[in-house]
Fold each of these.
Amino acid sequence: MKTFSITDVGQLRETNQDYFYTSENPVGNLPNLFIVADGMGGHNAGDYASQYTVEQIVDVVSKSKETDPAKIIKEGIEQANSMLLERANEDIARKGMGTTVVVLSITDNRLVIANVGDSRLYIINDSIRQITKDHSYVQEMVRMGEIDAEMAKDHPDKNIITRAIGVGKEVTIDFFEEEVTHGDFILMCSDGLTNMVEDDAIKSIILGQRDIAEKAEKLVETANRNGGKDNITVVVIEPFSDEVKRC
């Protein structure tokens, strides 16, 4: 397995409210673990929410007695949600904070993926396929047929998310299982990338750079060149490679 991860504040934001975690080695009963979170909230609440959530998920996963990857990840996200909500209730400055999260673990050629919010996971080869579904107001309208995908790109409410960690006692998590093969790349990212770079351009960058670090760095560079309106986080994974490289 070969991986490379990078986060960037972007061109307009003063702080980076994204946070990521990657481990190609076992974490508890998971063979590996990858997480991207995109925080929301005023002042320092967004960056606190994303980092705290990721750290809580990692802690729960590392201690879980479960053996099924989906159950382990579910346990981690649910406990992180409860803990973040407690932190928000304890500090008025953090009231209303929350975060998206997308989580991945890979066993052989099988992916177990969970997401809450609009951070994404793609599988890229000769095509690009978004596996996760955005939990956002605009994407809900697309799914209901009220607007089309082209209208959604520039919709004024595109940043309103309908699910997040830390905003309610219960959290609804989407789970996906996929298979990958030789030549596939996995991309996990915050919406700071996908709001600035079209899917076809993402695919071209992933397939057009030889080195996995160059793929990730080129994605961030392109997002910034296109405006960099938000924080940008990118995790690129090539599952069938023996070389491991990360920043």
Amino acid sequence: MSPDLIKSLVVPSSYTLGLQYLAEHQVRIVEADDAQVASTVLGKWELYEQRIQLKDGSLITKCSCPSSEQPFCRHCVAVLLEYHRWSPPRERVSALGGQVRSESMSDQKTSVSSLSEKLREITIFIGWLQPTIEAMERGQGFPYAPDLEPGEVMGWVKAIQRFEERWRLSEEKRLALEAEHSAREVQIGYLTKLLEDTVQKVKEAQSVWNAMQRDLTTCQEKLSHLYEMARERDRLEDQLKAMTGDLVKKRIDIEALASSLNEISGTLQTLTPLQP
């Protein structure tokens, strides 16, 4: 399928994004023949897998992405464009004689030169990959990317660099989560100790409350006893007042009797003649 045909089948946004994936070398064809293409596309957040088949004259596309773009997604657009770009030149029929002619010698030399350049880039990539793996195992930064021309090998380098960047971000998030977890454990320990102290204080307060209840019961009993004593005192006081009243009356009677006796004694003395 030519780029123009692909562009005519999909919405403009899908075609534009497919071109962007192609320009950023995020497309990798794993396996391809005249009937099917197996590939991967490094999206914004993860790697998606595609399988494109030509069956009974119909193009069947499948992609692991969640996109609902029709008739196929942006990743399949990128794969079809990449397949059109890297598919080997085929024998063409001459417009004049209708005979089959192969590609020219200059085209063959260009193909060999391109293959040599790609092998050189792959060798450089392998040389860069070994210290990169060692740096990854030690948790260190990756070495500088090799000086390669834009292409599939440079796309591999960029994909590994993006992977390293995402790994570092995830590692930073993991460390932040571990620090937050440790802080929460410290906070939980503090709250647990505070709860234990509070429970102990509640127990002590309950013990003091029980002692106060017992003291209150004792005080109530003593108060009841004092109330009974006060009632008895009032009763005795009333009796004393009554006795005091009786004594006062008797004193008056005695005084009256004594006065009468004095009068009688005086009268008797006046009546008794004096002895010679």
Amino acid sequence: MKPAYWEQACTTLAAADPVLADLIARYPGISLRSRGDVFHTLARSIVGQQISVKAADSVWGRLESTLGAVESERVLNAGVDTLRSCGLSARKVEYLGDLAAHHQAGKLDAEVWRQWDDDAVIAELCTIRGIGRWTAEMFLIFYLMRPDVFPLDDIGLLKAIALHYHGQERLPRKAITTLGEAWRPWRSVATWYLWRSLDPLPVEY
């Protein structure tokens, strides 16, 4: 289901930023969507850490093929060698195992997190091994569907900003932060369209 705020966000961003106006017009009829599965979203985010979208999709596909479905119980029952054979690093195997244990123990209570602000959710998620700010931000965007998340460490976002706003040269972090201020309170939506400019197929975590 499309977020309730999506049309309002697109209208506001298109009026404020010609780059985003062009991207929004270029990709009609699609939007951010949630898979509605806490473990799936966090697991897929861990798989995608520090690698390209294409590489992450490949690893995830192998996990699905090997496990049947990427579920916490199946991850815990799979051996290290099996998970490594799917293309995961030893560190990511450890991270997925810890996440799966949290899920099986009932510690991933997203319904409670819905009542918290972004910083509180990020702080809670970062107590889980292998989850840092970027992974928590992907959860905010793709599971909780928060409208104003700006993942400053996201490789794709930084690449798209360089492409569209600075002649393919990377802007300093402070300048990127300042650019994003103009997109409040819809920075998640701006980020989503900038991702689209690099990969027309929507990413789903």
